[in-house]
Design brief:
Strand order of the largest sheet: 1-2
Number of strands: 2
Protein name: DUF2304 domain-containing protein
Keywords: Membrane, Transmembrane, Transmembrane helix
Pfam family, one: DUF2304
Region (Disordered): 106-141
Strand content: under 5%
Largest sheet: 2 strands, antiparallel
Radius of gyration: 32 Å
Transmembrane segments: 6-24, 36-57, 69-89
Order of helices and strands: HHHHHEE
Helix content: over 70%
Length: 141
């Protein structure tokens, strides 16, 4: 392996690792995605520092060209990330719909408050234990 490819892989892996940690630190990326990106950065740095490990792994998995293994793993990684993001979008759409329905219900209740039922109270005041009636709460504006 020539030194240019070595340094390119090392710098690329360090950039991915640094950006992943920074996004997690700023709370832009959370959960499984954060772990996936940090692991990807660590793998890139590891394979850049030890390029023979990639050759060993590809021969162990019976892949003829180590670059094919890298490309296959990259496509697989992007597919998993895409599926994770799609499930997150679906979850957020359901949450947004539920919140919009709650806001609509609250808005309707605020515009048209329910009328108090005098038959349910028995009278407008509140009865005490001795049978005396005290005035009820003031009406809402």
């Amino acid at each position: 392996m020539n030194t240019d490819a070595y340094w390119l892989g090392l710098v690329g892996g360090l950039v991915v690792l640094f950006l992943s940690v920074e996004l997690v630190r700023r709370r832009h990326v959370r959960g499984r995605l954060a772990v996936a990106w940090i692991v990807l950065g660590l793998l890139a740095v590891g394979f850049a520092l030890f390029p023979s490990a990639l050759g060993w792994l590809s021969s162990t998995l019976r892949v003829q060209v180590p670059l094919n293994l890298v490309l296959f793993c990259g496509v697989l990684f992007l597919l998993v990330i895409s599926m994770q993001l799609a499930s997150e979008v679906g979850r957020l759409e359901a949450r947004t719909r539920r919140l919009a329905e709650e806001v609509a219900i609250l808005g309707a209740e605020r515009r048209h408050p329910p009328e108090p039922d005098p038959a349910a109270d028995g009278a407008s005041g509140v009865h005490t234990d001795d049978g005396a009636e005290t005035p009820g709460p003031p009406p809402h504006p």
